[in-house]
Specification:
It holds the Pfam family Pro_dh. This is proline dehydrogenase. It is an enzyme of class 1 (oxidoreductase). The protein contains 13 helices and eight strands. The protein has about 300 residues and is of the alpha/beta class. Helix 6 links the parallel strand 2 and strand 3. The longest helix has 18 residues. The protein is globular, with a radius of gyration of 18 Å.
Length: about 300
């Protein structure tokens, strides 16, 4: 029952004030969300890339309720791209976007989200990098995949995310494992009903391996979104079996979680991309990540203790 409680807290101004004022909060937030502004996060971009890592950058923001807020989200990403341009990092610093931020849930949301995200994707391509469309709850996926397909007509490198715990994903993976595709596979973090998603960890893990094998044996570019040491080892074996070179797939992990593993994989020659979120709405972002799957609370707590 933690999920509804945490979600309610994420919407409470009183809880926001209390949690924001707690001495431990800044330490926790800084560990996972390294800045509120572009100026604040650019030193992290330089630090990570200097250490041989790559990034996918997420400007946090949720509860978009007006077209003006969706346009502001678009403009925030365009500002990020403009600031990345002189760094000449190319695809070493890409972007991740949630279409809900671009107005997907508003009236006429599919067309609105497409119209807002297109200039971001085109601007990213102009500086030699890419955008990946994050997956949200299952009710949004048909729209996300349709937007992904439309964007790829002009910017083929546009990526998307698929979630192993959904029953539909094995079929989606077979469709997406084509030449030129970029697909990030994650386990899935939203609370989904048993009618559409596996509920047990061992079932999700088995589905993850089946789907990853499909991606590795396909002609696209797999992106392994996981912190699980066992799945990382399996991914390496699947890549070897499929005859993939080290630059023909990549690992992705969240900023602040298993940071030593980021460096280890990069040192071994793997492409290792760090999912780096920043922005002023860190409270909503952080609390909703916990609400989507309360087990994340234990995961983040363990990460704080291990510092790696």
């Amino acid at each position: 029952m933690l999920g509804p409680v945490i979600l309610a807290a994420s919407r409470s101004d009183r809880m926001r004030r209390l949690i924001s004022a707690a001495p431990v909060t800044k330490q926790v937030v800084d560990r996972f969300i390294p800045g509120e502004t572009v100026d604040g996060v650019l030193p992290i971009v330089r630090e990570l890339t200097d250490n041989g890592l790559e990034l996918t950058m997420d400007v946090v923001g949720e509860d978009i309720t007006t077209p003006e807020q969706a346009e502001a989200a678009r403009d925030a990403y365009l500002e990020l791209i403009d600031r990345l341009k002189p760094l000449e990092l190319g695809e070493r610093a890409e972007m991740s976007v949630k279409l809900s931020m671009f107005g997907q849930a508003l009236p006429g949301g599919h067309e609105l989200a497409l119209a807002n995200v297109r200039p971001v994707v085109e601007a990213a391509a102009e500086i030699g990098t890419t955008v990946t469309l994050d997956a949200e709850d299952h009710t949004t996926l048909d729209s996300m995949f349709a937007i992904h397909e439309e964007l790829r007509k002009d910017v083929p490198g546009t990526g998307c995310v698929i979630q192993a715990y959904l029953f539909r994903t094995e079929e989606d993976a077979r469709r997406l494992a084509a030449a030129g595709s970029r697909v990030r596979l994650v386990k899935g973090a939203y609370k989904e009903p048993a009618e559409v998603a596996y509920q047990q960890k061992h079932e999700i893990d088995k589905a993850y391996v089946r789907i990853l094998r499909t991606l590795m044996e396909g002609e696209g570019y797999p992106m392994i979104g996981s912190h699980d040491p066992r799945l990382i080892a399996i991914a390496q074996e699947l890549a070897r079996t499929a005859g993939r070179k080290l630059d023909e797939y990549e690992f992705q992990m969240l900023y602040g979680i298993r940071s030593e593993e980021h460096l280890r994989l990069a040192a071994e020659g793997h492409r290792m991309r760090v999912y780096t979120a920043y922005g002023t709405d860190w409270y909503g972002y952080f609390m909703r990540r916990l609400a989507e799957k309360p087990a994340n609370l234990r995961f983040f707590a363990r990460s704080m203790i291990t510092k790696g």
